[in-house]
Structure to design on (291 residues):
């Protein structure tokens, strides 16, 4: 039996409507979906025909081992034409994509990667604090606040530094950044559940970053430090979205999207964005006419 194809899809960091059109089109074709813990359950509406398997990882909690996930991808690709590996955020950013790509390559299984919105971008959008700034924020770094071996020694890397998985280490992270050369008055922005309607944002001096721990407790948290954490406009730092804007935020996929997207999307996509059509052609031994 010919092995199927594994498609890695970035689901975005929060609500289901942050997935890309290409990602939604592939989901509509999936036979099995191996999904992360933090992906929105509403995405199941885009693939009701698929079998959904939770292979999520959460810090300091139950996690599916990486070797087991690799083995499951290979096994499912041996039984199904289209296997989706649905990852929170973007697959290439702290998503352990490398290990899974290597496992599939060793097994001779074809794959494709569909990018998604990473949590750093959603946090910047929720806080309305651009990560890059003309003249003052030309460089940007992404890092984890924790490694498998524990805390790591930080060095100042960029004008704006973004830290993932930081919620349990806010006070310690502040001390490490101060030790790395950041000043006590450096602006810091903390956003939890970035990309969700109930996201929370708070603004701090770096020296006071630990004060955010209570507000963001138990929530996936992003910390932005440096130029990109400074307020860009009114309202004042730490304030909430105006009521009208907050009420307009989508809570999940638009009601018409789950049923309309698979049929409406495929015929209108340019060839490069029509994975279903391309896959059908390959399976039938057909290739586009050369020009």
């Amino acid at each position: 039996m010919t092995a199927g194809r594994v498609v890695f899809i970035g689901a975005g960091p929060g609500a289901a409507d942050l997935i890309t059109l290409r990602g939604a089109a592939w989901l509509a074709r999936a036979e099995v979906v191996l999904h992360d813990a933090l992906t929105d359950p509403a995405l199941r509406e885009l693939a009701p025909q698929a079998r959904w398997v939770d292979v999520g990882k959460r810090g300091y909690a139950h996690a599916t081992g990486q070797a087991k996930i690799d083995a499951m991808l290979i096994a499912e690709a041996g039984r199904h034409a289209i296997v989706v590996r649905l990852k929170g955020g973007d697959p290439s950013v702290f998503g352990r994509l490398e290990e899974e790509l290597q496992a599939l390559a060793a097994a001779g299984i074809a794959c494709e990667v569909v990018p998604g919105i990473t949590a750093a971008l959603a946090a910047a959008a929720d806080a309305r604090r651009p990560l890059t700034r003309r003249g003052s924020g030309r460089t940007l770094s992404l890092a984890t606040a924790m490694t498998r071996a524990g805390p790591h020694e930080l060095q100042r890397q960029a004008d704006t530094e973004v830290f993932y998985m930081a919620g349990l280490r806010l006070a310690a992270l502040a001390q490490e950044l101060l030790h790395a050369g950041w000043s006590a008055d450096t602006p810091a922005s903390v956003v939890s559940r970035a990309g969700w309607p109930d996201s929370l944002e708070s603004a701090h001096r770096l020296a006071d970053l630990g004060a955010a721990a209570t507000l963001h407790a138990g929530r996936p948290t992003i910390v932005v430090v440096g130029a990109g954490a400074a307020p860009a406009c009114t309202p004042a730092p730490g304030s909430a979205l105006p009521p009208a804007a907050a009420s307009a935020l989508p809570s999940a996929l638009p009601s018409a999207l789950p049923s309309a997207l698979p049929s409406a999307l495929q015929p209108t996509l340019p060839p490069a964005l029509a994975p279903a059509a391309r896959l059908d052609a390959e399976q039938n031994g057909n290739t586009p006419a050369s020009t």
Remarks:
- The longest strand covers residues 5-10.
